[in-house]
Each structure stands twice: as C-alpha cells, then as structure tokens.
Design goal:
This protein is of the alpha+beta class and 325 residues long. The protein folds into four domains: 2-66, Arc Repressor Mutant, subunit A (Orthogonal Bundle), CATH 1.10.10; 80-127; 143-221, Roll (SH3 type barrels), CATH 2.30.30; 243-321. The chain contains eleven helices and 13 strands. The protein has helices spanning 8-19, 26-33, 37-49, 80-93, 101-114, 124-127, 143-155, 226-230, 254-258, 286-293, 305-321; strands at residues 2-4, 55-58, 63-66, 119-121, 157-163, 172-184, 187-194, 199-204, 208-217, 243-249, 267-270, 276-282, 299-303. The strands form four sheets. Strands 8-7-6-5-9 form a five-stranded antiparallel sheet, covered by helices on one side. The chain has a four-stranded antiparallel sheet with strand order 11-12-10-13. A hairpin with a 4-residue loop joins β2 and β3. The radius of gyration is 28 Å and the shape is elongated.
C-alpha cells in the first residue's frame, strides 16, 4: 500500500530558501521545483500546521521568512521495524481517545508521520495490523482541570481545587502543592501535599470539579519520594500498616497466577495437585479484597485475618442479595 505525503525533499528545499533569507515566494519556488504555485501553497500550509514552522510573509519583500530566525526543520530517518512500531502506536492512541491526552498524542503522531519519505511503500497489514487494544472502563476528566493541574505540576505552582470524595454530596476546597500524576486502572490521580490535612494525599482527577493556580511558587519537598510514598501498595490505595497477604488459588486459576506479576515483591509457590500460593506485602486491604472477590471460588485468602474477615462479610452480604425472600 502506498501512502503519499507532501514531498519531503521539496519541503526541505523551501526550508533552506527561507533560512537563507532570500524571501522566496510561491511563484519562485514553483518555478525552481517545476510544480504549481498551488502545490507550494499546500506545502507552506503543511509546514505551518503540521511542522510548527513559524512562517510569515513579508509584503514589502514579497516573500516568506521565519519569525524565529534560528528555526530549522529536524531530520528523521526510519527503518521498516520502526515504521511498523509507528503503525502499532496509532492503534494504541485509540486507547486514550476519551482522555485529555489524546489530542496532544495525536498531534505528535501526525508530526512524526509528516516526516516520512514522500512515498513510503509498506505491507498493507502493517498499516492495519492485527493488533487491537481493548479499552477498559475509564473516568471522565474535565479538560480544563487537566490542563490546569498539568501546568501547575510543570511550573511548580500551588493549586486550589474543588475535590469531591466518592459518594460525597459536596466538594471540598483544598490548597494543594502538586507532586506527581499517576495513571491507574482507568483513572488519573494527583499526588500532592494538602494544606488542609497537612500531609501528602492522593486525589482522583475525575473528582476535581474545578482547579486554578494561585500563582504562588513552591519548591518540591525534599522528603517526597514516590516509591517510598506508595510503599508496598496493591493498586492505588495507600495505607499505614504493612501486612503480608497469602492467597491460595485452585489448579484452574494457578496458570494465570504464575504467568503474571501481580506485585513487585510477590512469591508464587506451587501447591499439591496444581494449585498455587501467592504471597505479597500490602499496606491497604481495600483493593486486595476487591481483586480476590473477582476470582470467585478460585481463590481463598489465608492471611491476614482482617482480610479473611472482610472477604467473609462481603460474601455473606452478596449472598443475602441473591437469597429467596
């Protein structure tokens, strides 16, 4: 399959002419390259819109120039394997279509593609590879909130946010020093120092109804370390007490347990008759409980006792929902 792009050599020729300060125009460039003036105008539009070239037109000198004199087009070469990876990346972009990141990632992808040789011939299956990224459930994020939080994080500015806890009726106003953004299981989280609580906490971005920068600068805390803050977490929930989790899996579930890394410090022990024992540390039981329940009768918690009790209570409550009245 052939993908035709604006001719790269011609675009680099236009770039050279502009950088030489010779003030070329569509007529002179078309004559030099033996193409129509319309083609040159399309190239100029492409350079402006896709390559971010700061091209301006001088009416007195009747030619183009760069408003940023030091600007120059970068060069890019790409192997067949890299082109294949680029095609796969296009598929992966769809996974982020519902997030504020999508438009920026799409723009970056389009810029990369615009640097491909003017005629690139590849296998059709590469452009539509037999690769699919199944989309998980995800939260909805206010684009304005996202942009404000990201800018505050980048510029190290204090934030005022209206944050609503899950299930809460009203939002709470917080003053936050943003430290880090984390993506987990379809949600983005802001980790920052909350002045109201006087400690570093985690906020779901989708639950931030409004965000604005105060204009006050801050220096990142030397005491904050992401790995230390997260500790021996399982999921995104952070607790204070570290516990050892032991879960026994049936022979049917054991192959799935062995083939994945569920926790960076996990241990998987083979059991008689094909079962498996998964052991790992965790400082919060909430997400461990939800994960175990997802395995149904294929998983049984052995330790710790608080988790065993929590699972038992959840199962009894679920059973009551389906009992005959």
């Amino acid at each position: 399959m052939r993908r035709v792009r604006p001719k790269i050599p011609r675009i680099y020729h236009i770039d050279r002419k502009i950088r030489d300060r010779s003030y070329p125009n569509a007529r002179t460039l078309a004559k030099e390259y033996e193409v129509s003036e319309r083609t040159i105008h399309h190239d100029i539009d492409h350079m402006r819109n896709m390559l971010d070239c700061p091209i301006e037109y001088d009416t007195k000198k009747r030619g183009y120039y760069y408003s940023e004199p030091c600007f120059a087009l970068p060069s890019l070469t790409m192997s067949e394997q890299e082109l294949f990876a680029l095609c796969v990346a296009e598929k992966a972009l769809d996974h982020y279509r519902a997030t504020p990141l999508y438009e920026k990632l799409r723009s970056i992808y389009d810029k990369l593609v615009s640097f491909l040789p003017d005629e690139t011939t590849v296998n059709c299956s590469w452009l539509n590879p037999d690769i699919t990224f199944l989309e998980k459930s995800h939260t909805s994020i206010n684009p304005e909130v996202w942009e404000t939080v990201a800018e505050a994080l980048n510029q190290k500015k204090e934030l005022i946010i209206n944050h609503r806890k899950a299930g809460a009726g009203e939002a709470t106003v917080r003053r936050v020093l943003p430290y880090h953004l984390v993506s987990y299981d379809g949600e983005w989280y802001l980790i920052g120092h909350c002045r109201l609580r006087g400690q570093t906490v985690t906020f779901g971005i989708s639950r931030i109804e409004k965000a604005e920068m105060t204009g006050e600068d801050y220096s990142p805390s030397q005491d904050f370390d992401l790995e230390q803050f997260m500790g021996e977490h399982f999921g995104i929930t952070i607790g204070e007490e570290e516990l050892t989790i032991e879960i026994e899996f049936t022979p049917d579930a054991a192959p799935y347990i062995r083939e994945r890394t569920w926790h960076r410090n996990q241990t998987v022990t083979d059991l008689p008759e094909g079962g498996a024992l998964l052991t790992f540390p965790a400082n919060s039981l909430r997400e461990v409980s939800r994960w175990v329940l997802g395995w149904g009768p294929q998983a049984r918690v052995l330790k710790p006792e608080p988790l065993v009790s929590q699972i038992r209570e959840d199962i009894e409550a679920m059973s009551a929902l389906y009992s005959d009245k």
